[in-house]
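Methods — Computational structure assignment.
A single polypeptide chain was analysed. Its primary sequence is given first, followed by the predicted tertiary structure written as structure tokens.
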Amino acid sequence: MNWINGFLMGSLWYMAAPGLLAYVLLPFTIFFFFCSYCKIPFRLLFGCCYTILSACIGVMELRYRLQGSLGLIMEIGLLAGCGCVLLKRKPLEALTLSVLIHSVVSVGSGVTSWIGYRILLPFILEHEQWVYPSDTVRECLRLLLVCALSVFILSHFRQSMASTSRQAHLQLTIPVFFISLVVRIIQTMIYGDEFWVDAGTGEILSVQNIRHGELLFLQIFACVCLLLTLYAYQKILKILQAEQKVLLLEQQAAEQEIYLQEAVLRDQKTRAFRHDIKNHLTVLAELLRAGETDRACDYLAHLDETAAALSCTVCTGNAAVDALLGSKLLLAEQKDIRIRCELKIPAQNMVKDMDWCILLSNALDNAVKACTELPKEERQINLASRKKGNFYLLMAENRCAKELTRVPEDGIGLSNIRAVAAKYHGTVKNTVSEGVYRLQIFLTIPKT
């Protein structure tokens, strides 16, 4: 034992090790798993920035004794803020994932605090030279628990964390924050940095009537509740996705019904025109025999207008889209909205006709609604597309109120657009600036 004591007392590394583990390695690990939850590659520079800021908050907590609920809120706020600023995540998403990772840290810290208080502390009271090594053991154990629980969550619930639903984020944030808060308060009030020892017996004095076995059970149960909450969150996401599919199916049925009605009406008009064509030709022949060329030309012009009315006003290369756009553009013209359509649908692509109609109908419905709130002279919608290889870009642009400086929250229409784009490994980007709203839909559509 003498050589061990000499090694420990002659070295200073073990005194710095607990601090390095708690204020450097643990925050670095937290940011690494935060990036993993966000599905973003970890960057060393961002990890170092967060570690430095976290260490500053840790020192502040120690100096001003803020390790309880206020300290937890500061730590959550720092990680969420770094997620928004450094990783460009949405505020609610960053907050949800920050609460989740700190809940994992709180559960790990609570269990290791109990071990440190009930197992390691009695040992170091008899062997004072092991004070700092025991702190190192405790911090290592906490780091291992945090890593193990984080890896387990990633392996079982990572897919559900990619949700962009505001409702789903709120449903996860509140119960997980409650679990984290309860464990942190227990850790701070019961297993804090201070303890008292009976001067006569050398026994550790604890708060009266505290049953440490039940506290350990409570902290383990908090861990179980955290996992059950994530499981329930996963089920909620599946329900929300099912509801989204139902909405899509309802919209598909409505669009299909409109398309069928238009197809039936067009077919009736075509049959009537074909039925009367023999009579029209007879009239033309009689006019020409009588030498009434001008009247024959006028009659031909009238026939041309009638035939043009039977064909689609838009030609995109897709019959279903042409029929849909024909009705939508007619509605827009009735509301004095100017439309420029330079849309071309790739031939022989993997996108279903119904999905094209969902994308365009929702985009146009939102654009028409925004334009109707403007003066007639400002109402305008532009549709265009670009294709390069297997990548297709659909662009919809419309005028909107100049007071609108932020993109509105997703409604049912834009949610449907995102759902369809996701089917084809695509993305949706919407921006607003200087009174113009732009919607860009990127799709990957290999040829059939």
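Note: DSSP finds twelve helices and seven strands in the chain.
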